[in-house]
Write a structure and sequence with these properties.
D-Maltodextrin-Binding Protein, domain 2, ten-stranded mixed sheet, 19 helices, single chain, disordered N terminus, alpha+beta
């Protein structure tokens, strides 16, 4: 018996037995292991060695039935109609009418759908025999209740244009749901694929009064693969396989989501056998990825349609000058970022949207890395060096910019350091300002920044949900574009994209949008985000592109 494992099991058994003697219960041990401890408790005084072996055997068995997943933060309250929980965790519990896979909307709780020729009526044919995790039926009535509850708070979802287009929800029978619109809505099917808020909560999860948006939920009841069983805030959440799940059930009986914010601590936990899998796109570095791979762990990388970019405040005191923005475009070497930080795991990006997003790949050549041209642009615009100063200035103002980023996104710090060095070569001083996630978003919305690093939503959110947010006054996406000369016309065209039925006109709209972003130098594309996974060598079945189960872990199993 391995000594390290032997000591761990003895300690676990001692703690569990102590809790049982005091009348308490372990909140971390699945029922199978708890029963074993209780059965062996009476034998401890006379048969200590056999008890140790029994506990070890059963604990190992329990471990094989529990997949332990690292989370960067708490899973949240799992309210499907709000934006406060981890999206992956919401995917574990809830589902929608449709899902999104490789750029295509595919069936989920609806097996099929029909769209009227005028684009105003969507008829969904629901999957028969689907039950919520509490055993109640999923039907058109509960689907209607969920959609109407979300639509009643349309003002809280500026990115969901479909909510303002929705006129009525009808239920001709238990397996037919009809959405009537007042205007065509190109984003409707995409909107329904999101992890929130247009997903299905069971009747018994609704509050006694009001709706989940205002009054929360009584319990997270969904149709998804997993059921929340235990929860300790900021520590872990234990999920149990949903035996009522209509699709292929997970191989593991339990899935434990353990909160480990620091990526290096997570890697140590993985090496120690305390975690089975870690997946993210913001913290795992190329060095860590390759080191863990060399140590025998399995690794996977999957490019997404999310793009990391430098968003420039077009309404800023200094960045309101388009010449400064153009200089930033030419002074940025995103290949150095791709290779230096990500070891090529994230490729250089060419525009704000991925080339795989419909209508957005309009053939505009990206700005090349040309610091000499950046210097010429700044010279001609009057941003010059004075004396021995290494930072340019104009009219008494120093060419100094604050770069803000979400401090929880570890890789953005490294990106900022490279940009700081690159921009210094053309006389621009970049002050790096890490911020708490909430403060970062508040300052973004208020325009309190020079530039910021952000990764686009990607997936089914684009292009329409992004355009809706960009065209909404007060939204943080709108704030970035405030100083654009073309902003009034741009907003009109972005809004037209949401309802435009003519494909040729729609493409013309996107040509204008993408050309405006480019000509006014609003965004500096950095890299194409990749989802990275590191997991134990005895596991298989990870599908990073899966539409079910969140993070693609639903099909994982022990080889």
């Amino acid at each position: 018996m391995d000594m390290k494992k032997r000591i761990t099991v003895l300690l676990a058994a001692a703690v569990s037995l102590s809790l049982a003697a005091c009348g308490g219960q372990s909140t971390q041990t699945p029922p199978a292991a708890e029963e074993t401890v209780q059965e062996t408790e009476s034998q401890t005084e006379q048969e200590s060695e056999p008890v140790e072996e029994t506990v070890q055997e059963e604990t190992e068995a329990a471990k094989k039935d529990t997949l332990i997943v690292r989370m960067t933060g708490d899973v949240g309250d799992l309210n499907p109609h709000t934006m406060k929980s981890q999206m992956a965790a919401q995917d574990w519990v809830y589902e929608s009418l449709v899902a999104f896979k490789k750029g295509t909307v595919v069936p989920e709780l609806a097996e099929s759908w029909d769209i009227s020729t005028d684009g105003l009526t969507y008829t969904f044919h629901l999957r028969e025999g689907v039950k919520f995790s509490d055993g109640t039926d999923f039907d058109s009535a509960i689907a209607k209740k969920n959609i109407e509850a979300v639509a009643n708070h349309a003002e809280g979802y500026s990115f969901l244009n479909s909510l303002t287009s929705l006129e009525s929800v009808e239920t001709p029978d238990a397996l037919t749901l009809v959405l009537k619109l007042n205007v065509p809505c190109n984003s409707l099917l995409n909107d329904l694929t999101f992890s929130r808020p247009l997903v299905m909560l069971g009747e018994n999860g609704f509050p006694d009064e009001g709706d989940p948006y205002d009054n929360g939920i009584t319990k997270p009841i969904g149709t998804g693969m997993w059921i929340l069983k235990e929860y300790v805030a900021d520590q872990y959440a234990l999920f149990e396989r949903n035996e009522n799940y209509w699709g292929e059930k997970p191989n593991f009986r339990y899935m434990k989501a353990v909160v480990i914010p620091d990526v290096n601590t997570a890697a140590i936990a993985l090496k120690a056998g305390e975690v089975d899998v870690m997946i993210d796109s913001t913290q795992i570095t190329a060095d860590m990825y390759k080191e863990m791979e060399a140590a025998g762990f399995k690794t996977e990388a999957a490019p997404t349609t999310s793009i990391s970019s430098l968003n420039i405040n077009t309404g800023g005191e200094i960045t309101g000058d388009v010449n400064v923005r153009l200089a930033l475009e030419y002074a940025t070497d995103n290949t150095a970022i791709s290779e230096g930080i990500f070891g090529g795991l994230q490729k250089p990006a060419t525009a704000y949207f991925s080339t795989d997003i419909p209508y957005t790949n309009v053939g505009i050549a990206p700005y090349s890395y040309d610091p000499d041209k950046a210097n010429v642009i700044l010279d001609e615009a009057g941003w010059v060096y004075e004396g021995d100063n290494q930072v340019r200035s104009k009219d008494g103002k120093s060419l100094e910019l604050d770069l803000i980023y979400d401090a929880s996104v570890t890789n953005d710090r490294d990106i900022a350091l490279i940009l700081q060095s690159q921009y210094a070569q053309v006389g621009i001083q970049l002050n790096i300002v890490p911020q708490d996630s909430q403060i970062y978003r508040q300052n973004w919305a208020a325009g309190e920044f020079g530039v910021l690093i952000y990764s686009s939503w990607g997936g089914s959110y684009e292009p329409y949900a992004t355009l809706a947010a960009m065209a909404t006054d007060g939204d943080k996406f709108n704030t970035v574009q405030k100083g654009m000369k073309s902003k009034p016309e741009l907003d009109d065209i972005m809004l037209d994209c949401l309802t435009q039925e003519d494909p040729e006109m729609l493409q013309e709209n996107f040509n204008y949008i993408m050309q405006s972003f480019h000509d006014e130098a609003v965004y500096v594309p950095l890299t194409v985000i990749s989802t990275l996974a590191i997991y134990n060598s005895d596991l298989a079945g990870l599908d990073l592109e899966s539409v079910h189960g969140g993070m693609g872990i639903g099909g994982m199993y022990v080889e």
